[in-house]
Amino acid sequence: MVKGGDIVQFDWNDSGDEDHTGIVTRVEKNGHSVAIYYAGHTSNTDYQSVDESLRNGGGTVSFWNVK
User: Where are the alpha helices (DSSP H) in 1-67?
Assistant: First the structure.
């Protein structure tokens, strides 16, 4: 299960390597759906929705838990 503080990495062009990295800032459960938000190092990504970023940029996403 993804949680705040985890790393999120995006592969915008499905090339197999990560193009952007952020930190999960919030996970919201709403019934059967889950919304995950992250902060990145570029403008306008404070509390950006992972789903919205994928809709806008395409590609895939991976999450990494840091213990």
Answer: 50-57
